[in-house]
Amino acid sequence: MADPCFIDANGHRTWLKWHRARRTVTDPEFTASRILEAMRLGASVEVDLVIHADGGFAILHDLELDHATTGTGLVRDTSAETLRQLHLRDPNGEPIAERVMLLEDLCALLSAHPAHPDALLQLDFKEDRTRVDARSIANFSAAVSPVAATMILSGGDAEAVAALAEATPGLKTGYDPTYPDVLHDLKTPQHFADFIQKALETAPTAEMIYLAYDLVLAANAQGVDLIAAVHAEGRRVDAWTLKETNPDSIAAALRLIALKVDQITTDDPSLLIERLNEKLAGSLA
């Protein structure tokens, strides 16, 4: 069985990104064991960053601790020492043995266990520029600089990403212009064309543009190829997120692969790659 890293089809490689460091849909989020596994295999893997009370970064998605950890309250009000004592929860809400990691903990692990040359760890910053100050920039740079070559920093606030990346030589950046209900605002082919042009202008140095997969497919239905527009600027596209592996998500993935998307974000890369390989093999039979 193929490692859940990428699909080659029609002369193009599409990576399957392990969303929140999950190999399967039943995995807990952000466990050190899965992150190290992905990086050893040469996969693309994503973790989220939230700033804590000491001006560093916790590997968490939510601004609150209650749902994903054994803690309570806001991450921004919680110290690094306290965060390190908290356990993560599994998808059923049960505590697991692995604890919350801080960014420096993760980077130390990667330094001790060098990644495969093809591996890429996405650091997805979940806050905005108002939360980034001199202390957080210094903490970020100190943690990431030793392993920056294996990482890409992304977020929905291009200024926040730029501020952190400028202090961290060798770090790649990405930008996600998607916002809630974006499809309600994009009604015509020109709307879609203007949207992607604005995204490219907003983040001129971003190597990867992160787009909701249904946005990409809705644009294509109106004759606008957002992926081709990004490729024309020498950049790459990640389409997010296929949460389950079912007939609808498989069909969406096949459409994205046909459009030559560079990366598909999925919560279930292990099963998705199996089903996609079956479909692609059948189409060639």
TrEMBL record:
GO terms for biological process: lipid metabolic process. Transmembrane segments: none annotated. One of its GO terms (molecular function) is phosphoric diester hydrolase activity. It comes from the Bacteria. Residues 7-276 form the GP-PDE domain. This is Glycerophosphodiester phosphodiesterase. It comes from Peteryoungia ipomoeae.
